[in-house]
Known about the structure:
Elements: H1 5-11, E1 17-19, E2 31-34, E3 38-42, E4 55-59, E5 65-67, E6 73-82, E7 86-92, H2 94-97, E8 101-102, E9 115-124, E10 128-130, E11 135-143
Antiparallel strand pairs: 1-6, 2-11, 3-4, 3-6, 5-10, 6-9, 7-11, 8-9
Amino acid sequence: MILSGKAIKEKIGKEIIIRPFDDKAVNPNSYNLTLHNELLVYENAVLDMRKPNATKTITIPEEGLLLEPGILYLGRTQEYTETDKYVPMLEGRSSVGRLGLFVHVCAGFGDVGFKGYWTLEIHCIQPIRVYAGVGICQIYYHAIEGAYDLYTSGKYQNNTGIQPSLLYRDWEF
């Protein structure tokens, strides 16, 4: 079961945290999240799953930033979210997708108990100018059935900024 926008709004501050929260961002069954003004890009053309990969930070200026195809931009939401009761899911907004801009490659699925900012895996199929503060994606919530363990100590839990891949930690023992 997916929560309705009205149910999301009723649960804000109790079972769902979204900070900052804006009533105008509530949709019939989701909530629009906005793009922060910083992006990360990997510095090397070849990435290694078993090693940390160097990144550099790009700030989106007020006049916007032109994104280019063939580059993975890591961004984040301006909003911090958390819930211990629902499975959070993230999707791009259809208006953004219709411009050929995609906000996640494969990480739209959250774990119940996730607390933090959402890292966005942004790529485009043609050049596009983006702006900080734009409603870029939407979060929605599934009810979970059965006993479950909370996501409490994963690699990306309680993040404070954009998270590059930490897959290399899976090889550390």
